[in-house]
Protein backbone atom coordinates (compact mmCIF):
# COMPACT_ATOMS: atom_id res chain seq x y z
CA UNK A 1 0.00 0.00 0.00
CA UNK A 2 2.55 2.54 1.10
CA UNK A 3 5.71 0.92 -0.19
CA UNK A 4 6.97 0.61 3.37
CA UNK A 5 8.80 -2.56 4.45
CA UNK A 6 6.37 -5.16 5.80
CA UNK A 7 6.08 -5.28 9.58
CA UNK A 8 4.33 -8.63 9.72
CA UNK A 9 6.83 -10.66 7.74
CA UNK A 10 10.01 -12.04 9.22
CA UNK A 11 13.32 -11.28 7.54
CA UNK A 12 13.39 -14.84 6.16
CA UNK A 13 10.14 -14.10 4.31
CA UNK A 14 7.81 -16.02 6.62
CA UNK A 15 4.59 -14.31 7.63
CA UNK A 16 4.05 -13.51 11.30
CA UNK A 17 1.09 -15.77 11.97
CA UNK A 18 0.35 -15.54 15.66
CA UNK A 19 0.51 -12.91 18.37
CA UNK A 20 2.92 -15.21 20.22
CA UNK A 21 5.45 -14.64 17.38
CA UNK A 22 5.38 -10.87 17.80
CA UNK A 23 8.21 -10.57 20.37
CA UNK A 24 10.55 -12.27 17.89
CA UNK A 25 9.51 -9.96 15.05
CA UNK A 26 9.72 -6.94 17.35
CA UNK A 27 13.30 -7.92 18.14
CA UNK A 28 14.11 -8.05 14.41
CA UNK A 29 12.64 -4.59 13.92
CA UNK A 30 14.77 -3.16 16.70
CA UNK A 31 17.89 -4.84 15.35
CA UNK A 32 17.21 -3.36 11.91
CA UNK A 33 16.72 0.22 13.07
CA UNK A 34 18.56 0.91 16.32
CA UNK A 35 22.20 0.19 15.34
CA UNK A 36 21.99 1.68 11.85
CA UNK A 37 19.95 4.80 12.54
CA UNK A 38 20.90 5.65 16.11
CA UNK A 39 24.31 3.94 16.42
CA UNK A 40 23.04 1.43 19.01
CA UNK A 41 22.11 2.12 22.61
CA UNK A 42 24.58 2.92 25.40
CA UNK A 43 25.32 -0.18 27.51
CA UNK A 44 23.05 -0.34 30.57
CA UNK A 45 24.77 0.32 33.91
CA UNK A 46 25.18 -2.34 36.64
CA UNK A 47 22.45 -0.56 38.58
CA UNK A 48 20.94 2.87 39.12
CA UNK A 49 20.64 4.69 42.42
CA UNK A 50 18.34 7.59 43.24
CA UNK A 51 19.25 10.09 45.93
CA UNK A 52 16.66 12.62 47.07
CA UNK A 53 18.39 15.98 47.49
CA UNK A 54 15.41 18.12 48.38
CA UNK A 55 11.63 17.93 48.81
CA UNK A 56 9.27 20.82 49.40
CA UNK A 57 5.62 21.76 48.92
CA UNK A 58 4.68 24.05 46.05
CA UNK A 59 2.12 26.76 46.60
CA UNK A 60 0.98 27.25 43.04
CA UNK A 61 1.16 23.86 41.31
CA UNK A 62 -2.07 22.12 42.31
CA UNK A 63 -0.76 21.62 45.85
CA UNK A 64 1.99 19.31 44.65
CA UNK A 65 5.35 18.40 46.18
CA UNK A 66 8.55 19.22 44.32
CA UNK A 67 11.37 16.68 44.65
CA UNK A 68 14.92 17.00 43.34
CA UNK A 69 16.64 13.68 42.87
CA UNK A 70 20.13 12.71 41.74
CA UNK A 71 20.13 9.73 39.37
CA UNK A 72 23.35 7.72 39.61
CA UNK A 73 24.07 5.18 36.86
CA UNK A 74 26.65 2.73 38.20
CA UNK A 75 29.57 2.27 35.87
CA UNK A 76 33.19 2.11 37.08
CA UNK A 77 32.67 5.79 37.79
CA UNK A 78 29.04 6.72 38.42
CA UNK A 79 27.36 8.94 35.82
CA UNK A 80 24.95 11.33 37.48
CA UNK A 81 22.25 13.76 36.41
CA UNK A 82 19.20 15.39 37.99
CA UNK A 83 15.55 14.33 37.88
CA UNK A 84 12.76 16.60 39.12
CA UNK A 85 9.40 15.27 40.27
CA UNK A 86 6.19 17.18 40.82
CA UNK A 87 3.94 14.88 42.85
CA UNK A 88 0.21 15.51 43.37
CA UNK A 89 -1.24 15.57 46.89
CA UNK A 90 -2.00 12.14 48.39
CA UNK A 91 -0.11 8.89 48.75
CA UNK A 92 -0.46 7.48 45.25
CA UNK A 93 0.81 5.44 43.62
CA UNK A 94 0.38 7.79 40.66
CA UNK A 95 1.01 7.38 36.93
CA UNK A 96 4.00 9.38 35.66
CA UNK A 97 4.66 11.54 32.62
CA UNK A 98 8.42 11.65 32.08
CA UNK A 99 9.72 14.43 29.85
CA UNK A 100 13.39 14.87 28.94
CA UNK A 101 13.16 18.40 27.51
CA UNK A 102 13.99 20.47 30.61
CA UNK A 103 16.59 22.27 28.44
CA UNK A 104 13.75 23.95 26.56
CA UNK A 105 11.67 25.11 29.49
CA UNK A 106 8.39 24.98 27.55
CA UNK A 107 6.45 23.27 30.34
CA UNK A 108 4.51 26.19 31.75
CA UNK A 109 3.00 26.23 35.25
CA UNK A 110 -0.41 25.77 33.58
CA UNK A 111 0.75 22.59 31.88
CA UNK A 112 2.38 21.27 35.06
CA UNK A 113 -0.77 21.98 37.09
CA UNK A 114 -2.93 20.22 34.48
CA UNK A 115 -0.74 17.11 34.73
CA UNK A 116 -1.03 17.09 38.53
CA UNK A 117 -4.74 17.89 38.69
CA UNK A 118 -5.45 14.67 36.81
CA UNK A 119 -3.52 12.72 39.42
CA UNK A 120 -0.25 12.25 37.53
CA UNK A 121 3.34 12.88 38.53
CA UNK A 122 5.29 15.15 36.19
CA UNK A 123 8.92 14.00 36.07
CA UNK A 124 11.47 15.99 34.12
CA UNK A 125 15.14 15.70 33.32
CA UNK A 126 17.48 17.59 31.08
CA UNK A 127 18.66 15.31 28.28
CA UNK A 128 21.54 17.64 27.36
CA UNK A 129 23.19 16.74 30.68
CA UNK A 130 23.69 13.30 29.12
CA UNK A 131 24.80 14.39 25.66
CA UNK A 132 25.19 18.02 24.67
CA UNK A 133 23.04 19.19 21.78
CA UNK A 134 25.99 20.94 20.09
CA UNK A 135 27.82 19.60 17.10
CA UNK A 136 31.08 21.12 18.28
CA UNK A 137 30.83 19.48 21.73
CA UNK A 138 32.27 16.22 20.32
CA UNK A 139 32.41 13.04 22.33
CA UNK A 140 34.64 14.14 25.21
CA UNK A 141 31.80 15.09 27.55
CA UNK A 142 28.58 13.75 29.01
CA UNK A 143 28.04 10.01 28.76
CA UNK A 144 30.34 9.38 25.79
CA UNK A 145 33.67 9.03 27.69
CA UNK A 146 32.09 6.19 29.68
CA UNK A 147 31.95 4.07 26.52
CA UNK A 148 34.82 5.18 24.29
CA UNK A 149 34.36 2.39 21.73
CA UNK A 150 30.59 2.88 21.35
CA UNK A 151 28.99 4.50 18.31
CA UNK A 152 25.67 5.71 19.73
CA UNK A 153 24.58 9.21 18.83
CA UNK A 154 22.87 11.83 20.96
CA UNK A 155 19.33 10.54 20.33
CA UNK A 156 20.27 7.14 21.78
CA UNK A 157 22.05 8.82 24.71
CA UNK A 158 18.92 10.86 25.42
CA UNK A 159 16.76 7.72 25.20
CA UNK A 160 19.18 6.09 27.67
CA UNK A 161 18.41 9.03 29.98
CA UNK A 162 14.70 8.14 29.93
CA UNK A 163 15.59 4.56 30.82
CA UNK A 164 17.72 5.58 33.79
CA UNK A 165 14.93 7.84 35.01
CA UNK A 166 12.58 4.84 34.90
CA UNK A 167 15.17 2.96 37.02
CA UNK A 168 15.20 5.87 39.46
CA UNK A 169 11.41 6.16 39.62
CA UNK A 170 11.28 2.59 40.97
CA UNK A 171 12.77 3.98 44.21
CA UNK A 172 9.69 6.11 44.92
CA UNK A 173 6.62 4.64 46.65
CA UNK A 174 4.43 7.35 45.11
CA UNK A 175 5.16 6.02 41.59
CA UNK A 176 2.98 3.44 39.86
CA UNK A 177 5.60 1.58 37.83
CA UNK A 178 2.93 -0.04 35.65
CA UNK A 179 1.73 3.36 34.39
CA UNK A 180 4.78 5.26 33.18
CA UNK A 181 4.44 7.46 30.10
CA UNK A 182 7.31 9.18 28.29
CA UNK A 183 7.05 12.26 26.12
CA UNK A 184 9.30 14.68 24.30
CA UNK A 185 9.07 17.34 21.61
CA UNK A 186 10.73 17.40 18.22
CA UNK A 187 14.30 16.09 18.71
CA UNK A 188 13.15 15.25 22.24
CA UNK A 189 10.21 13.35 20.68
CA UNK A 190 12.60 11.36 18.52
CA UNK A 191 14.35 10.40 21.77
CA UNK A 192 11.15 9.57 23.68
CA UNK A 193 9.97 7.36 20.80
CA UNK A 194 13.30 5.52 20.77
CA UNK A 195 13.14 5.20 24.56
CA UNK A 196 9.65 3.72 24.47
CA UNK A 197 10.45 1.36 21.61
CA UNK A 198 13.42 -0.09 23.46
CA UNK A 199 12.13 -0.40 27.04
CA UNK A 200 9.10 -2.53 27.89
CA UNK A 201 8.73 -0.95 31.31
CA UNK A 202 7.35 2.14 29.57
CA UNK A 203 3.58 1.65 29.38
CA UNK A 204 2.80 4.62 27.13
CA UNK A 205 5.10 6.26 24.61
CA UNK A 206 4.28 9.74 23.36
CA UNK A 207 6.13 11.98 20.92
CA UNK A 208 5.16 15.47 19.77
CA UNK A 209 6.08 16.87 16.32
CA UNK A 210 8.97 14.42 16.18
CA UNK A 211 9.19 14.23 12.38
CA UNK A 212 12.30 13.02 10.59
CA UNK A 213 13.96 10.14 12.53
CA UNK A 214 10.96 10.20 14.87
CA UNK A 215 7.36 9.52 13.87
CA UNK A 216 8.02 10.67 10.27
CA UNK A 217 8.80 8.70 7.13
CA UNK A 218 11.82 8.55 4.82
CA UNK A 219 9.97 6.98 1.90
CA UNK A 220 7.20 9.56 1.84
CA UNK A 221 8.47 13.12 2.09
CA UNK A 222 5.50 15.47 2.28
CA UNK A 223 5.85 19.01 0.84
CA UNK A 224 8.57 20.99 2.61
CA UNK A 225 9.56 18.13 4.90
CA UNK A 226 13.00 17.47 6.34
CA UNK A 227 14.98 14.81 4.49
CA UNK A 228 17.74 12.45 5.57
CA UNK A 229 20.26 14.73 3.83
CA UNK A 230 18.92 17.75 5.74
CA UNK A 231 19.02 16.14 9.15
CA UNK A 232 22.31 14.28 8.85
CA UNK A 233 23.90 17.36 7.32
CA UNK A 234 22.97 19.58 10.26
CA UNK A 235 22.90 17.08 13.11
CA UNK A 236 25.31 14.24 12.31
CA UNK A 237 25.99 13.77 16.02
CA UNK A 238 22.38 12.67 16.67
CA UNK A 239 22.90 9.45 14.69
CA UNK A 240 25.04 6.39 14.17
CA UNK A 241 27.94 6.71 11.74
CA UNK A 242 26.42 4.41 9.07
CA UNK A 243 23.21 6.35 8.45
CA UNK A 244 24.68 9.00 6.14
CA UNK A 245 25.45 6.29 3.56
CA UNK A 246 21.71 6.11 2.82
CA UNK A 247 21.33 9.73 1.74
CA UNK A 248 19.69 9.58 -1.68
CA UNK A 249 19.07 5.83 -1.25
CA UNK A 250 16.26 6.01 1.30
CA UNK A 251 14.28 3.26 -0.46
CA UNK A 252 17.16 0.90 0.41
CA UNK A 253 16.99 1.56 4.13
CA UNK A 254 16.20 -1.76 5.82
CA UNK A 255 13.58 0.07 7.91
CA UNK A 256 11.37 3.11 7.96
CA UNK A 257 10.05 4.90 11.00
CA UNK A 258 7.03 2.59 11.31
CA UNK A 259 9.54 0.05 12.68
CA UNK A 260 10.09 2.23 15.71
CA UNK A 261 6.38 2.79 16.23
CA UNK A 262 5.59 -0.91 15.87
CA UNK A 263 8.33 -1.83 18.36
CA UNK A 264 6.21 -0.10 21.01
CA UNK A 265 3.37 -2.63 20.42
CA UNK A 266 1.46 -3.99 22.22
CA UNK A 267 2.13 -1.14 24.65
CA UNK A 268 0.45 2.22 24.16
CA UNK A 269 1.59 4.81 21.63
CA UNK A 270 0.43 8.35 20.92
CA UNK A 271 1.94 10.85 18.53
CA UNK A 272 0.69 14.42 18.53
CA UNK A 273 1.26 16.38 15.33
CA UNK A 274 0.71 19.81 13.78
CA UNK A 275 -0.67 20.21 10.26
CA UNK A 276 1.31 23.39 9.66
CA UNK A 277 4.60 21.84 10.80
CA UNK A 278 5.56 20.79 7.28
CA UNK A 279 9.22 20.28 8.22
CA UNK A 280 8.07 17.44 10.51
CA UNK A 281 6.28 15.69 7.60
CA UNK A 282 2.71 15.39 8.92
CA UNK A 283 1.49 13.40 5.90
CA UNK A 284 4.40 10.93 6.00
CA UNK A 285 3.75 10.56 9.71
CA UNK A 286 0.21 9.43 8.94
CA UNK A 287 1.59 6.65 6.70
CA UNK A 288 3.91 5.24 9.35
CA UNK A 289 1.04 5.46 11.81
CA UNK A 290 -1.25 3.45 9.53
CA UNK A 291 1.44 0.85 8.97
CA UNK A 292 2.09 0.46 12.70
CA UNK A 293 -1.62 0.35 13.39
CA UNK A 294 -1.82 -2.87 11.37
CA UNK A 295 0.38 -4.48 13.99
CA UNK A 296 -1.81 -3.23 16.82
CA UNK A 297 -4.84 -4.60 14.97
CA UNK A 298 -3.07 -7.93 14.45
CA UNK A 299 -2.38 -8.06 18.19
CA UNK A 300 -6.00 -7.21 19.02
CA UNK A 301 -5.16 -3.88 20.69
CA UNK A 302 -5.88 -1.36 17.95
CA UNK A 303 -7.24 1.18 20.44
CA UNK A 304 -3.80 1.44 22.04
CA UNK A 305 -2.27 3.40 19.15
CA UNK A 306 -3.36 6.98 18.58
CA UNK A 307 -2.45 9.99 16.52
CA UNK A 308 -3.77 13.49 16.98
CA UNK A 309 -3.33 16.47 14.64
CA UNK A 310 -3.96 20.07 15.44
CA UNK A 311 -3.81 23.17 13.26
CA UNK A 312 -0.76 25.39 13.58
CA UNK A 313 2.98 24.99 13.60
CA UNK A 314 5.87 23.45 15.49
CA UNK A 315 5.48 23.55 19.27
CA UNK A 316 4.56 21.56 22.37
CA UNK A 317 1.86 23.64 23.98
CA UNK A 318 -1.13 23.24 26.24
CA UNK A 319 -3.35 21.64 23.56
CA UNK A 320 -0.76 18.95 22.82
CA UNK A 321 -0.41 18.18 26.52
CA UNK A 322 -4.18 18.03 26.99
CA UNK A 323 -4.39 15.55 24.10
CA UNK A 324 -1.83 13.37 25.89
CA UNK A 325 -3.58 13.73 29.26
CA UNK A 326 -6.92 12.71 27.73
CA UNK A 327 -5.30 9.75 26.01
CA UNK A 328 -3.68 8.73 29.32
CA UNK A 329 -6.98 8.98 31.16
CA UNK A 330 -8.51 6.73 28.54
CA UNK A 331 -5.69 4.21 28.41
CA UNK A 332 -4.75 4.12 32.11
CA UNK A 333 -8.04 4.90 33.82
CA UNK A 334 -10.68 3.75 31.33
CA UNK A 335 -12.26 7.21 30.98
CA UNK A 336 -14.10 7.45 27.65
CA UNK A 337 -11.92 9.33 25.15
CA UNK A 338 -12.73 13.01 24.74
CA UNK A 339 -10.86 13.39 21.45
CA UNK A 340 -10.57 11.18 18.38
CA UNK A 341 -7.16 9.56 18.00
CA UNK A 342 -7.76 7.88 14.64
CA UNK A 343 -8.65 10.70 12.26
CA UNK A 344 -6.87 10.88 8.92
CA UNK A 345 -6.47 14.54 7.87
CA UNK A 346 -5.03 13.38 4.50
CA UNK A 347 -7.89 11.31 3.09
CA UNK A 348 -6.47 11.49 -0.43
CA UNK A 349 -3.00 10.34 0.65
C1 LIG B 1 15.13 21.08 13.59
C2 LIG B 1 15.42 19.70 13.11
C3 LIG B 1 14.21 18.85 13.35
C4 LIG B 1 13.70 18.99 14.75
C5 LIG B 1 13.77 20.40 15.27
C6 LIG B 1 13.61 20.54 16.77
O1 LIG B 1 16.10 22.00 13.32
O2 LIG B 1 15.74 19.78 11.75
O3 LIG B 1 14.50 17.49 13.04
O4 LIG B 1 14.37 18.13 15.60
O5 LIG B 1 14.96 21.01 14.97
O6 LIG B 1 14.15 19.75 17.54
O7 LIG B 1 12.93 21.51 17.16
Q: How many DSSP H or I helices?
A: 8
CATH fourth-tier homologous superfamily: Alpha/Beta hydrolase fold, catalytic domain
What fraction of the residues are assigned to beta strands by DSSP?
Answer: 15-25%
CATH classification, class level: Alpha Beta
Mean pLDDT: 97
Distance between the termini: 11 Å
CATH topology: Rossmann fold
Range of helix content: 25-40%
Overall number of strands? 9
Shape, please? Answer: globular
SSE-based structural type: alpha/beta
Just name the CATH architecture.
3-Layer(aba) Sandwich
**Largest sheet features:** 9 strands, mixed
Order of helices and strands: HEEEEHEHEHEHHEHEH
Order of strands, main sheet, comes to 1-2-3-5-4-6-7-8-9
Radius of gyration: 19 Å
Domains (count): 1
Which ligands accompany this protein?
A: beta-D-galactopyranuronic acid
Unreliable residue runs: none
Would you write up a description of this structure?
The protein has 349 residues and is an alpha/beta fold. The protein has a single domain (19-333), classed as Rossmann fold, CATH 3.40.50.1820. The protein is 28% helix and 19% strand. The protein is built from eight helices and nine strands. The protein has helices spanning 22-38, 109-117, 154-169, 187-197, 228-234, 258-262, 282-298, 318-333, and strands at residues 48-57, 65-73, 79-87, 94-99, 121-125, 175-183, 204-208, 268-274, 305-310. The radius of gyration is 19 Å and the shape is globular. The chain starts with 21 loop residues before the first helix and ends in a 16-residue tail after the last helix. The relative contact order is 0.14. Bound molecules: beta-D-galactopyranuronic acid. Residues 186-187, 211-212, 226, 231 line the site of beta-D-galactopyranuronic acid (GTR).
Amino acid sequence: MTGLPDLLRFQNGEIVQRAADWPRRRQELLEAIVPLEYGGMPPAPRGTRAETLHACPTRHLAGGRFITCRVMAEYERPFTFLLYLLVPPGAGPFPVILNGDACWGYVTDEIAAAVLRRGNILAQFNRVEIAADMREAGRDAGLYPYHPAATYGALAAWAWGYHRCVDALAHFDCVDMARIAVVGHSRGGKASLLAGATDERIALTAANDSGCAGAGCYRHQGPGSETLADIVGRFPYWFGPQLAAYIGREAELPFDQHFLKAAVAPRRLLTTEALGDLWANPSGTWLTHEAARQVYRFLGVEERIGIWYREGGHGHGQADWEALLDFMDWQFRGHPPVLRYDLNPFPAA
